[in-house]
Design a protein that fits this description.
By secondary structure, the protein is α/β, with parallel strands linked by helices. The chain is built from 15 helices and 15 strands. Strands 2-15-8-1-7-5-6 form a seven-stranded mixed β-sheet, sandwiched between helices. Strand 3 (103-106) and strand 4 (111-114) form a beta hairpin. The protein starts with 16 loop residues before the first helix and ends with a strand.
């Protein structure tokens, strides 16, 4: 079975957007891979779960977004929120910032860290994600930097790992997102504002991307982008992107009940479309063989070394490889790899993401500006 293509790190990936924005703002050291025009003010709207294929499939529900300039870039791997927010924060591929999935091993502890529900102060966000952020770099050069998102996320481990250097502006409604963005864009001589909106993703997880609920939510997202564009000050550019796409898998394999997927496994990380399998000492080869045999052509099942050599994570910084499972199982087609005992919440999910298939990996990068 042919291996999937790796994300286009350095040539059209989400990690290329932040340094390109810094360059456009005149911040020294920013490499403008994406060729963004020079402007004094930039707003980046992150729509959680807005895959490129989904957007293009719904022109009537998202007319403003579909009319914007731009095209598709790739998220990183895994195609999931934690990993993408890490790349948007640092301008690095996942292997560089170390936020390598929803649940990853904390080396030397024998336990997993859930990066989305990161309220565990025993893992220091500044140590676990040690790379400087683009927000810190911009602020050091005199740019006014703000991050607009739900108040619930303010002060979480993930926010502390990914928004350092930005003033966090809580916004708990669409109106607040627009209002806070307008306010922050008007500050100083140069401004860099990131706006994060999670509702399309949560709607997809609960009801699926084929649902009427998801399409209605997409209309709200389209209106959000239009309203932010309407309040751009002179000299500002708006870039709309996402962290991943989404699919509605119809087949599920339960790693907690299939013997071949349980034996020799110490920890099970990642999520349903990208599993990190941490083997017990001496069991690596057996675990790799068993997962390969059980999942067959429904998943790409490789060792950690093969996944890294294939460029899935980009360049791995020192100490990051140990966070990845000894075996990496990436679902393709209709498969979801659930875990009913360890992760009962997955049983309620319809839409999922994390894989290297285009429906999950390709995301939009759209733009508009006010002269």
């Amino acid at each position: 079975m042919a291996r999937p293509e790796a994300p286009r790190y350095g040539a059209g990936a989400l990690a290329d957007l932040p340094p390109s924005v810094l360059s456009a703002l005149g911040v020294p050291g920013g490499v403008n891979v994406l060729g963004l025009p020079s402007v004094p003010r930039v707003c980046v709207l992150i729509v959680d779960g807005l895959g490129w294929e989904l957007l293009r499939a719904h022109p009537a529900d998202a007319p403003f977004l579909n009319a914007m300039d731009g095209g598709a870039i790739t998220a990183g791997f895994p195609a999931t929120t934690v990993t993408s927010l890490g790349s948007l924060a640092t301008g690095l591929p996942p292997g560089g910032h170390g936020l390598l999935g929803v649940q990853v091993a904390v080396p030397g502890t024998g336990r997993l860290l859930n990066c989305l529900r990161w309220r565990d102060d025993s893992v220091d966000p500044a140590t676990f994600q040690p790379a400087p952020t683009v927000y810190e770099r911009a602020a050091a050069d005199g740019v006014e930097v703000a991050y607009v998102g739900l108040g619930y996320y303010r002060g979480s481990g993930l926010s502390r790992a990914t928004t350092r250097g930005a003033t966090y502006l809580p916004a708990d409604s669409l109106g607040q997102l627009v209002g806070r963005a307008e306010y922050a864009l008007g500050l100083g001589d140069r401004s860099f504002v990131t706006v994060y909106h999670p509702d399309l993703d949560s709607t997809g997880h609960r009801f699926g991307v084929a649902s009427a609920d998801w399409r209605v939510q997409l209309r709200f997202v389209d209106d959000l982008a239009r309203r932010i564009a309407d309040v751009l000050p002179a000299g500002a550019a708006l870039y709309v992107t996402a962290d991943h796409g989404m699919v509605d898998p119809s087949e599920r394999v339960d790693a907690d009940t299939v013997p071949g997927l349980r034996e020799g496994v110490a920890l099970l990380g990642g999520d349903a479309r990208c599993r990190y399998v941490y083997s017990e000492p001496g069991a690596h080869d057996d675990v790799l063989a068993a997962w390969t045999d059980v999942l067959g052509d429904r998943a790409w099942v490789v060792s950690r070394d093969e996944a890294a050599a294939s460029g899935w994570f980009g360049e791995l910084a020192p100490g990051m490889a140990e966070r990845i499972g000894d075996v990496v199982a990436v679902a393709r087609g209709e498969l979801a790899i659930t875990a009913s005992e360890r992760e009962p919440w997955l049983e309620r999910m319809v839409g999922m993401h994390g894989s290297l298939v285009p429906a999950e990996l390709l995301i939009p990068l759209l733009s508009t500006s006010r002269p």
